[in-house]
Amino acid sequence: MSNSTLHQVWPESAADSPEHKALAALRAQIDAVDDQLLELFQKRLDLAGQVGRAKDAPTGPHTKLRPDREKAVLAHVHGRAAAPHKEAVTGLWREIVGWGLAQQGQLKVQVWSPNEPARAFDGARQRFGRAADIRMVQDAEAALRFASDGGGVAVLAVNNDTPWWIGLRKEWAHLSVFEGFGGEVPSAFAVGPIDPAALPGGRRVVVSAGGDAGDGAGARRWGLHTHHGWTLALTEARIAPGGPEGCVGAVG
Ligand SMILES: C=C(O[C@@H]1C=C(C(=O)O)C=C[C@H]1O)C(=O)O
């Protein structure tokens, strides 16, 4: 295409056309909104940093990640967002909350999923956001040890033969499940040294030796895995983490 043809299609006077002016005015509004967003986002980051320092005193061995609070923040913005924007708002706020948590120290996530590594990694990235340092690992026990030693959290698949979850009733009893990945019947769980008071209020994760122990009458229950008499299940029964029913956490 020659220059003369270009001139015909897009004459110099186009800069003064009503279309161009309307576009420029809209972009000026976007620039102004960006300035406001930038100021508010940085203010939020600073506040999250302050919350982190306020949490220093009583947290003990627990991570600063508070799944219950994150869930409440996401539910709040989802509830207030206009219907066509709910998905965009929720996706963005996952990122915002991830960066908020990062103000209190970068979250490290070890993902173990021998059968579906990409799916588990994507789930972890969506849940914890760009701010998190997320790595695939080859050994479920090592990932649990990493979480136990305060290194961060682990995302572990259950669609395989390694019954790592039995350890949540034994050597890893101080770790809690706080998220499920893959829908109603999760194929992976996030596990970490979460303050039991900060667990999300969703379905409870139960690891029990034999059968249906601890399920309240009539509560819905999803069996996920069994191994040598041990059962991993989800339940809607309102049982307390760490109690005799074998509740090892909850999913959001
Ligand atoms: C700011 C906090 O710390 C973290 C960051 C959050 C956020 O940015 O909204 C929410 C929960 C925590 O995982 C908090 O506990 O309130």
TrEMBL record:
Its EC number is 5.4.99.5. Residues 17-108 form the Chorismate mutase domain. GO terms for molecular function: chorismate mutase activity. Pfam families: CM_2. PROSITE patterns: CHORISMATE_MUT_2. GO terms for biological process: chorismate metabolic process. This is chorismate mutase.
